[in-house]
Amino acid sequence: PETPYQPPATKFGNSTTFQDDFVHRGLVPRESYKPPNIAKLSDAPFENMTSNKLSYVPHAPEARYVKPPAEYKPSTQPFQDLTTHRQDYQGLPSQLPRSCKPEAIKAASNKPFQGSTEFRDRFQPWPVSLPQVQKSVEYMSPTEHMDLTTTSHTDYIKHQIQPFVSAKPFSLPSKSSVPFQGNTTMRDDFQPWVAQRQGMIRKQEEMQRASGKMEDLTTFRAHFIQHEPQPSFSFKPQNAPLRTDVPLQNETMYRSEFTPKKISTCLASFETPPGFVFDNYDDRGHRFFRKMTSADKIETPKEMVLTA
């Protein structure tokens, strides 16, 4: 029986033919034949004898050669600052060059400056009259009422117009009791046919699948011989620093020729230098101090506190 079409209630709810005929099958667990990645230790002792160990003869390290520093010998001759330019180019005696530029002489005159020009002489000023200003007429508002009648209002003649009567007879609709025949040539020749859902097209398998259990034995698995891993031994020498019993020569030219000097303190950094007494000011504001004598060292206290 044909079922009526019902639109889906959700968006994109129409299912496809693939969704209707598809049967979901779960994941089939596969057995892993990969050997475990676990290192197997060997019980046999490791043979670490190599040709290097058999033929190697150890030698004692030699002492490191230290180049002695060159001794500084100052020169006894005075420094010659005479260069090739000073020696070969002594200069030629000649006169000083004279300037060809004329001297700037200021021309002074007692006559008054004549400021008349050709333009001032030919174009003398002429009298100009002011433009006449026309006096505007004062607006006077009308006292009578405005006549709003127009030519159309005064000359228009009203006519009596009769309504237009149509001479065409009225067409009355003809009613019939026979039902309307809506068949057409298109409907008679093209009858609707029953629409059925097309089944899923499946391609015929060219190869037949085996029904028995798969034999997963490969050539590698059949001929593989498992060996126990043997750990490798490192023959790399240790990164130990080279040491020597010879003491380090830390004597430098600066240490041998350095002469310590007494550090002097600038007296200007003190507001009142120690050992000096303020004397007076000069006209520029400079302060002058004099050395302290034995009489200045006896200071009189400003305040005295008596305690019982």
Automatic annotation (TrEMBL):
UniProt-recorded name of the protein: Stabilizer of axonemal microtubules 2
Region (Disordered), start-end ranges: 32-51
Biological source species: Cirrhinus mrigala
Stated family: Belongs to the FAM154 family.
